[in-house]
Amino acid sequence: MFNFEFNSLAEAFLMQSQNGQNHGIFVWTVLIIVFLSILATFIFYKMSIKKITKKLK
Amino acid sequence: MYQVDRAYSYIFYISLVLYLVSIFWGLFVTPEDFVQGNSYRIIYLHVPASFISQSLYIAMAIASAIFLIWKVKLSAYLVRSIAPIGAITTFIALISGSIWGIPTWGTWWVWDARIVSTLILFIMYLGLISLHDSFSNHEKADKFLSILVLVGSVNIPIIKMSVEWWSTLHQPASITISDKPAIDLVMLYPLFGSIVGFAGIVTCLVILSSKLQILRRERNKSWIKNYV
Amino acid sequence: MNIIKFELLKLRSKSRGWLGPILVFILIMVAFPLTVEISNKDLGNSFFAVLWIAILLVMMLATEDIFLEDFNDGSLEQFAISNISLPYIIAVKIFIYWLLIGVPISIIGSLFCLGFTNSSNLAINIFPILLITSYIFINVFSFGNALSLTKGSVLGTLVTLPLLLPLLIVLGKAVISINLNLNYLGFVALLLGVLSIIIFLIPLIISYIIRAHLE
After folding, report:
1. Of B113, B130, B140, which has the smallest distance from its Cβ to C169's Cβ?
2. Cβ atoms of B132 and B149 closer than 8 Å
3. Closest partner residue to B45 among A21, A31, A48, by Cβ?
4. What ipTM does this complex have?
5. What are the tens digits of pLDDT across the range B96-110?
6. What is the pTM of this model?
7. What domains appear along chain B, each with residue ranges and CATH number?
């Protein structure tokens, strides 16, 4: 459907560029950190709201 | 509160889908950059975070001004609830920026004006939270929080203009209001998508946080009993 | 005029209040080359870094109880309801603190600069910058002190510390401009502009905060 840049999953993991550097590790690290922090924030707020509504009932 | 509850799930799922699609597009479909190689893809995570963190501070400043002038209590709740979210977004911006710096500049931290000002923004968010929580009297705490937010809003022009005023390592803005964008169009569309998507996710977080704040502060009022 | 004499007498009588910070400043500047074993020619480069940090910390120390004593013995309330406007009284208080603490520190700092860098051009040019900077620091730290007046903690002062970090960036570039003789008057003008805004705004903000505390 689209013209993917990387041809296989292993290539996408490394993200090798024209001059041979493997930058994939940086991109995936940042992605994991960002997603984990957003997820942790959501979970924290949902838990706090649940706790306080239970206390108010 | 009820209307927000109903709209919440729509906002959440739409912006989540938009954000994930933009990230996916940016990570896998866009071609690689000539200068930086493939590590430029962090831009789809870093730019939304820093843009949103500055916009959150401006939103806090507007809400503080509304609170001080018209004494609307909801504005004070909003200021207090945006502060932790702003801290987390600034944290994401700093971490993604410094990890991006390793392949691009060779170092993960450099003391130039924009990076230091963003660090100052992060410290200010934490200082705002700690200042508000140190007061037991809530009206006083709200007033002081608003004043501190307004005084600290001098940092935002410094962040935005620091790339023009001083010659720094951080690259200047690729998207401005007046000029043609300095970035290729193929890479521009997922960038816009990820900014809008991230803004939607942060809006959901702010809604949750202000819900928590309202529940905590108004727990003795009668309408709460009907709500829960 | 009476107010100025009154505040002057009050601060001068409390010798711990104004002599203490000056002595701490001298102590820091004297202890710095002792603790860091560097040769004579590197002393000039790192002197300015220590100078700005030392002034920052000494001003934080000096304004720690700028309003606390008055708040505790009730004279702040008398100020608030008196005929003379509260921002004016606060401005006078800050001015007296600057006269008794900021100006001596600027003079001593310039003398230390002469001693460390052996360049009278630097020492003479840094003096007005020191005067203006110490006044800005005293203003901002007294704003921080007013925020946490009832708690008696340094939380308010610490929270306003990040606001001064951009000023430190500008100061570093100002020192470079003196060395290269590039745009020195521009930096002095910038600092004077910041000072003029701050002198006007900070007493108003502090008076609002104090009235909120007194309710």
Report:
1. B113
2. no
3. A31
4. 0.82
5. 888 888 877 777 787
6. 0.85
7. 2-227 (1.20.120)
